[in-house]
């Protein structure tokens, strides 16, 4: 292995010095990995690092993610607010598409559907994480409404042969929403940030709607 390395070094030396000896010009030195780059086409080794900064002004963005509870599932929404250095005041609207389920039992078909939406005001406090990210603990207070429907269609046997069944019911369940959480944002540019939002949706009322939600955010600052 050492002999092969020596042969390669000698060969490279000959390749770089031979043209210079033929033309009478001084030998061309091989490029060094530590040679600083220039603006004449050399590859720059510097990276464009975007620092995270606090903001005073308006921010508007979109969110999308998943709620880990029946009636939530995939959701999307809009967040907007105003930052005064570290203090953040804003609002958020989220629509969750929920899911539908159809079950066939004998001659009966049961269909259920549940989805929901929420609107809340938010207050948070921004903290810089070594100028790489912005951490925002926050709490939101507002209203959450879950809507759904259920139906049973088919027939059941009786003494006369069969009895038709056609039952339907609609659900509309508004409740108070309290949602503490944490938002982490990373700068793509000075005024464009993306991040993650982890929150717990505490929903009052008789329904079982409280649960965690995890969202991706894109925010534009003005």
Can you summarize this structure?
With 222 residues, the chain is mainly beta. 10% of the residues lie in helices and 64% in strands.
Quick tags:
222 residues; mainly beta; Porin; eight-stranded antiparallel β-barrel; 1 helix; 64% strand; elongated; disordered N terminus
> Judging from the principal axes of the Cα atoms, what is the shape?
elongated
Mean pLDDT comes to 81
CATH first level? Mainly Beta
Which strand order does the major sheet show?
A: 1-2-3-4-6-7-8-9
β-strand percent reads: over 45%
How does the helix and strand content classify structurally? mainly beta
Estimate the helix proportion, in percent. Answer: under 10%
Radius of gyration: 32 Å
Order of helices and strands: HEEEEEEEEE
The CATH architecture would be Beta Barrel
Poorly predicted parts = 1-12, 14-28, 30-46
Distance between the termini: 61 Å
Please tally the helical runs, counting DSSP H or I stretches of 4 or more residues.
1
The tally of structural domains comes to 1
Fill in the CATH topology: Porin
DSSP E strands, number = 9
Largest sheet: 8 strands, antiparallel, barrel
Description:
The chain has a single domain, classed as Beta Barrel (Porin), CATH 2.40.160. Helix content is 10%, strand content 64%. The protein contains one helix and nine strands. It has one helix at residues 2-23; strands at residues 55-67, 73-85, 87-105, 108-125, 127-129, 133-158, 161-187, 192-203, 211-221. Strands 1-2-3-4-6-7-8-9 form an eight-stranded antiparallel barrel. A hairpin with a 3-residue loop joins strand 5 (127-129) and strand 6.
